[in-house]
């Protein structure tokens, strides 16, 4: 993976993570503040509702107190007399209430008399039974308590809710009955206005397992009912808050018990908040954050691209420069980077290239003045100045009639001729892994078995000499100045090493075998290869050769019999 | 002579009759009357201070199931005064058919009424110098009598079929006579409005002793 890709990956990753985190935080924050807002709204509504309820409770208590002070009511209740309603109606100020009922000392509802004799707020018989059933929990032994009853006046009409307040009637130390005051709750009976208010709110009441609300969308009702049943259940907590989805949009339901610890079944003031507006807002926020994140990623990735370019371009230039150097171009074109560090790097690279160029020049000069392999061994530090005893084969090769050839010629012409000759033969030698030890005028001295080991040095040397001879003969056919060459080959132990002063030395071999090879070369006629005994011994028996007459050679006390290879 | 004989017979018959009846006397252990608790805030405006109520005695009576009682006390009539803002007496027993009047002895209005099932009545307001109507009690049972103006005023009137009843003195002592011999239930209504009962055997010319307690 490229640096640029990595950099961009890192930038995108970081920004995506940052965007995700801010998305999460914003969403949570938004959610929490909305929840708090709804909670406050609900509290407001609920407390105003409860204030009304408390005011009514106070009124009911006042009425109950007034009744308590009526010895006539006390007496009438004590006797369980139906006239109680009339007596109570005379005593009470009931303008604020829709109906009242009396319960005797045993807890039984005293049936209100029919007709207008006492206006107790009569209902149709069926409703009356339902009301009596719902008022059953009221008992004289209990204190003031509030409850809610729901009555359906007609089949097709929605339920109507009545708040009932039960106040015991006491006279001195005895409780003789209960006064129940009923008042219809307004604000829950307009089903045609089925819409949420500005805050997305709908108020409702949950009474006796029935949800009574002004503004319920019918399709929402089952979900609401389910949530309330789940939330209230058997535990009947003081307040319930639930979140649910219905028909693709979210709702928040809050309910608070209106009559905790009451004898009557708990009734809840319910508020349903539609979260549609909030969710839209939330979605907008999310989209905005994502869009911002994407823009930031794009910008950052552009900036990253540019920065990466500042690094990658010089690097690429350096890489191609390295290729150039590998190819032997030690002056590559380097585009310096825009940054200081990159310029330093380019400068350093240039210096290094210059150093390498110098080294290469040294190397080629060395390879030219010394044999290539010797040069390599020298540079590798494998050749010591001291020298070592080695088994080698030495070839001497020179041109017959060189003196005659060069006499009276332009030396430059001679050198050119020689160079051509030497180059051709050198190629052959290199092919056979021979080491050119030195050129001396028309003569070439070639080593096999030094400086590197070669177990077949003698055979290789002979083969090489034969090839050289063949090459010369081939060249002779192409030139109008044919040259005759002769070879002397000797095998044996020599000392190989660098010969000379400490700071100026040549790699060479020293020993009588070298002399022998040189002497044998001088006895060889044009086109002849003369080898010594040891070389001959290294060759296969089948190699055709003829021994020479004993040769008297300079530097050798005994005459030596050598061998001529038969072409 | 026949006259003497008739007189002698009548005297004998009377003695015979007298000797065929017995009585019962004894003591009812009075329990605590319900304390006259007054609800806070009850302060009736009266011209004179409210006087204390009389100590509440018990009512004792003798009865037998299925018996047809002689109407010996059905003609009685009792005056229940309102004096010192109290009913006096506050505990009364009457035989069915007996009646009561409610003279007002205070300088203020009283309004005596009752919603009790044996006898509902409402006398309305009347003053000291106005005569109160006479109320006759035809059905047996307890009749609680109140004054609408003064809530603390209570009167417990017990209407009985039997003529053999007595209101005890403040120590709970009582004596009932003129009961034909036989086995009876003797009952008492205590100041706490609880009822106690026992069995008593009445023998001719004798007074049985009974103690009633809870």
Folded structure, characterized:
The complex is a heterodimer of chains A (567) and B (214). Chain A has 567 residues and is an alpha+beta fold. Among the domains of chain A are: 201-274; 325-369, no CATH class; 382-565, Nucleotide cyclase, GGDEF domain (Alpha-Beta Plaits), CATH 3.30.70.1230. Chain A is 46% helix and 23% strand. Chain A has 13 helices and 18 strands. Chain A has helices spanning 3-68, 71-78, 84-91, 125-135, 221-232, 276-327, 340-369, 372-379, 402-406, 411-431, 457-478, 512-523, 533-538; strands spanning 99-104, 109-110, 145-151, 160-171, 174-184, 201-207, 210-213, 239-246, 249-257, 267-274, 388-400, 435-440, 443-448, 484-500, 505-510, 529-531, 545-547, 563-565. In chain A, strands 11, 12, 13, 14, 15, 16, 17 and 18 form an 8-stranded mixed sheet that branches. Chain A has a 5-stranded antiparallel sheet with strand order 2-1-5-4-3, with helices on both faces. Chain A has a 5-stranded antiparallel sheet with strand order 7-6-10-9-8, with helices on both faces. In chain A, a hairpin with a 2-residue loop joins strand 4 and strand 5 (174-184). Chain A is rod-shaped and about 175 Å long. The two termini of chain A are 65 Å apart. Chain B has one helix at 2-19, and strands spanning 21-28, 59-63, 77-79, 81-83, 86-88, 91-95, 99-101, 110-114, 121-126, 135-136, 141-147, 154-160, 165-167, 173-180, 182-189, 195-202, 207-212. Chain B has 2 domains: 21-32 and 48-69 and 163-214, Immunoglobulin-like (Sandwich), CATH 2.60.40; 71-161, Cupredoxins -  blue copper proteins (Immunoglobulin-like, Sandwich). In chain B, the strands form 5 sheets. Chain B has a 5-stranded mixed sheet with strand order 6-12-11-8-9, with no helix packed on it. A 4-stranded antiparallel sheet of chain B has the order 13-2-15-16, with no helix packed on it. Chain B is built from 1 helix and 17 strands. Chain B is mostly beta strands and 214 residues long. The radius of gyration of chain B is 20 Å and the shape is globular. Chains A and B meet through helix 2 of A and strand 11 of B.
């Amino acid at each position: 993976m490229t640096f640029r890709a990595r950099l961009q990956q890192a930038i995108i990753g970081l920004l995506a993570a940052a965007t995700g985190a801010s998305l999460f935080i914003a969403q949570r924050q938004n959610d929490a503040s909305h929840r708090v807002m709804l909670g406050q709204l609900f509290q407001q509504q609920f407390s105003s509702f409860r204030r009304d309820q408390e005011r009514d409770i106070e009124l009911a208590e006042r009425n109950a107190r007034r009744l308590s002070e009526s010895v006539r009511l006390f007496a009438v209740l004590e006797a369980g007399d139906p006239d109680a309603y009339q007596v109570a109606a005379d005593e009470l100020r009931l303008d604020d209430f829709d109906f009242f009922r009396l319960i005797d000392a045993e807890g039984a509802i005293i049936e209100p008399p029919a007709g207008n004799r006492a206006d107790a707020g009569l209902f149709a018989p069926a409703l009356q039974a339902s009301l009596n059933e719902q008022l059953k929990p009221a008992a004289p032994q209990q204190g003031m308590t509030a409850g809610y009853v729901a009555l359906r006046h007609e089949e097709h009409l929605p339920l109507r809710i009545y708040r009932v307040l039960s106040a015991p009637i006491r006279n001195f130390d005895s409780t003789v009955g209960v006064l129940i005051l009923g008042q219809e709750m307004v604000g829950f009976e307009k089903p045609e206005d089925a819409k949420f208010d500005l805050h997305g709110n709908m108020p409702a009441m949950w009474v006796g397992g029935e949800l009574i609300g002004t503004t319920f969308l019918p399709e929402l009702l089952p979900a609401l009912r389910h949530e309330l049943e789940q939330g209230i259940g058997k535990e009947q907590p003081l307040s319930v808050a639930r979140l649910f989805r219905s028909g693709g949009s979210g709702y928040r339901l809050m309910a608070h018990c209106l009559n905790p610890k009451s004898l009557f079944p708990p009734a809840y003031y319910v508020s349903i908040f539609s979260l549609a507006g909030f969710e839209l807002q939330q979605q907008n926020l999310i989209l905005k954050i994502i869009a911002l994140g994407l823009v930031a990623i794009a910008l950052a990735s552009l900036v990253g691209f540019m920065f990466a370019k500042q690094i990658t371009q010089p690097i690429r230039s350096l890489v191609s420069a390295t290729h150039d150097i590998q190819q032997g171009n030690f002056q590559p074109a380097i585009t310096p980077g825009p940054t200081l560090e990159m310029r330093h790097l380019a400068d350093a690279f240039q210096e290094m290239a210059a150093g390498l160029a110098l080294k290469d020049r040294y190397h080629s000069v060395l390879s030219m003045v010394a044999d290539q392999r010797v040069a390599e061994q020298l540079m590798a530090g494998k050749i010591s100045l001291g020298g070592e005893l080695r088994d080698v084969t030495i070839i001497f090769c020179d041109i017959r009639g060189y003196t005659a050839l060069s006499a009276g010629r332009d030396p430059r012409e001679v050198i050119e001729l020689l160079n051509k000759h030497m180059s051709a033969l050198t190629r052959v030698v290199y092919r056979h892994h021979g080491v050119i030890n030195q050129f001396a005028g028309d003569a070439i001295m070639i080593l096999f078995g030094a400086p590197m080991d070669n177990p077949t040095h003698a055979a290789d040397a002979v083969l090489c000499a034969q090839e050289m001879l063949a090459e010369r003969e081939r060249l002779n056919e192409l030139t109008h100045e044919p040259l005759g060459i002769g070879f002397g080959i000797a095998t044996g132990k020599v000392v190989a090493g660098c010969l000379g002063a400490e700071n100026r030395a040549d790699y060479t071999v020293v020993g009588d075998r070298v002399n022998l090879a040189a002497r044998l070369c001088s006895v060889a006629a044009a086109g002849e290869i003369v080898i010594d005994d040891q070389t001959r011994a290294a060759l296969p028996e089948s190699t055709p050769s003829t021994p020479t007459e004993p040769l008297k050679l300079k530097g050798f006390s005994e005459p030596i019999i050598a061998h001529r290879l038969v072409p | 002579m026949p006259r003497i004989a008739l007189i002698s017979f009548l005297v004998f018959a009377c003695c015979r009759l007298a000797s065929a009846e017995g009585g019962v006397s004894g003591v009812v252990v009075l329990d605590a009357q319900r304390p006259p608790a007054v609800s806070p805030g009850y302060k009736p405006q009266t011209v004179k201070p409210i006087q204390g109520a009389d100590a509440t005695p018990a009512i004792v009576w003798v009865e037998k199931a299925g018996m047809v009682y002689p109407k010996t006390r059905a003609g009685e009539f009792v005056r229940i005064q309102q004096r010192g803002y109290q009913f006096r007496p506050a505990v009364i027993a009457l035989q069915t058919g007996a009646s009561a009047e409610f003279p007002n002895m205070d300088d203020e209005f009283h309004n005596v009424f009752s919603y009790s099932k044996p006898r509902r009545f409402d006398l309305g307001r009347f003053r000291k110098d106005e005569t109160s109507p006479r109320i006759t009690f035809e059905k047996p049972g307890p009749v609680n009598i109140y004054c609408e103006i003064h809530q603390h005023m209570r009167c417990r009137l017990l209407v009985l079929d039997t003529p053999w009843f007595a209101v005890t003195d403040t120590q709970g002592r009582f004596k009932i006579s003129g009961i034909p011999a036989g086995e009876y239930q003797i009952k008492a209504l205590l100041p706490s409005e609880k009822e106690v009962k026992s069995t008593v055997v009445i023998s001719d010319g004798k007074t049985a002793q009974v103690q009633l307690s809870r």
